[in-house]
Amino acid sequence: MNASDALALDFCGLSMSCPVVLAAGTAGYGVELNDAFDLAKVGAVVTKSITRAPREGNSPPRIIDSRAGMLNAIGLANVGIDAFLSEQRSTRSAVQCRLFGSVAGHATQEYIDVASAMDGDPHIDAIELNVSCPNTSDGLQFGECPVALTALLREVRPVVTRKPLIVKLSPNATDIVNMAAAAIASGADALTVANTFTAMAIDVNTRAFRLSNKRGGYSGTAIHPIIVRMVHDIYANVARDARKPIIGLGGVSRWEDAAEFILAGATLVGMGTALFIDPRSPLAVVDGLARWTRAQGCSHIAELIGAVHA
Ligand SMILES: Cc1cc2nc3c(=O)[nH]c(=O)nc-3n(C[C@H](O)[C@H](O)[C@H](O)COP(=O)(O)O)c2cc1C
User: Fold this and answer.
1) Looking at residue 121, which CATH number applies to its domain?
2) Which has more pLDDT, 92 or 138?
3) Are residues 41 and 63 in contact, defined by beta-carbon separation less than 8 angstroms?
4) Residue whose CA is closest, atom 22 of ligand 1?
5) Which residues does 287 contact at the CB level (< 8 Å), separation at least 6?
6) Would residue 190 count as lying in a domain?
């Protein structure tokens, strides 16, 4: 048995070569990291979040280093759905792994428009909804309020007919298990757990906010154990019985971090901040997972999903 056999697995009916995916907003539109390594070595790339219209995003500084992670306030800078689907078409066909399209918006209709456009694009294998945006009509965060999330999915779920629909949860929700239950009840095929934690950093010399947007999203090593707990709780309380796979995402930089997510109940494992430190770090994670699977006496990594609950 070779490494690729041990790591191959099914995700919502998609055959994946391995469980490692590159997280939204950290790997461009798909091909950018091809220069760093052969993308065929990972399972999927998630595009940066795409909105209906192009967005410049926030002014700099919009990424800063923090001791055990990173803060970002990119502000959803992206080319917009039309340019993504037309100008980026040739580059997307060069991606040798699965491509998941990330959808963002500030109004339900924007999510509907972008998700339905992606649903019709042959190069996109699955659609991930980034619900960590406030709804412009009521100011509520789609990802922090189960009523707002349910209302959003009631409209978006029917327009995604060809591809798995993944809902990316916000760790800022008071009760993320409740949000996961709402997403599943509203038709989500899978969950990504999770986006960044709302955070802030202040320069003590200038007495100014370090990010131009003042607030940003915190990611990286420090958040990993918190997200492991969230994956564990969502798997145990809702996802396992509903048979909905989880993408564990937060602070993975070593294979052991990815293995922890799998034992907690994740089917796939995302990597984001680690790519800024070493763009080739997914390769070591993939190799480590293959060795770990064999060392655990398993033929396939899927046998280890949720194993801590046994
Ligand atoms: C610079 C940067 C940009 C990001 N942009 C997006 C984005 O466009 N859409 C999204 O859903 N998540 C975005 N994220 C969040 C990541 O996809 C991921 O959920 C988060 O960083 C936690 O994973 P990590 O600790 O491995 O980075 C971004 C993260 C970073 C660091």
Assistant:
1) 3.20.20.70
2) 138
3) no
4) 250
5) 3, 255
6) yes
Total number of domains constituting the chain:
1
Q: Which of 228, 230, 266, 270 is nearest to 253 (CA)?
A: 270
Tell me, yes or no, if 133 is annotated catalytic.
yes
Task: Examine the pLDDT at 90 and tell me if it is beyond 80.
Answer: no
Q: What is the pLDDT of residue 4?
A: 64
Does residue 72 lie in a domain region?
Answer: no
Q: What is the 295 CA–ligand 1 centroid distance (Å)?
A: 31
The answer to whether 108 touches 156, Cβ cutoff 8 Å, is yes
Q: List phi, psi (to 5°) of 194.
A: -160, -175
| Averaged pLDDT of the chain | 94
The answer to which of 89-93, 100-104, 133-137 has the lowest mean pLDDT is 89-93
Ligand 1 pocket list (CB less than 6 A): 23-26, 48-49, 63, 70, 72, 74, 102, 130, 168, 195-196, 219-220, 223, 249-252, 271-274
> 182-229: per-residue pLDDT in tens?
999 999 999 999 999 999 999 999 999 999 999 999 999 999 999 999
Atom of ligand 1 nearest to the CA of 24: 17
- Calpha distance 256→262 (Å, rounded): 10
Q: Which of 18, 97, 133, 145 is catalytic?
A: 133
Q: What is the per-residue pLDDT for 1?
A: 46
Closest-lying ligand 1 atom to the alpha carbon of residue 223: 25
Domain that holds residue 172: 3-54+79-196+220-309
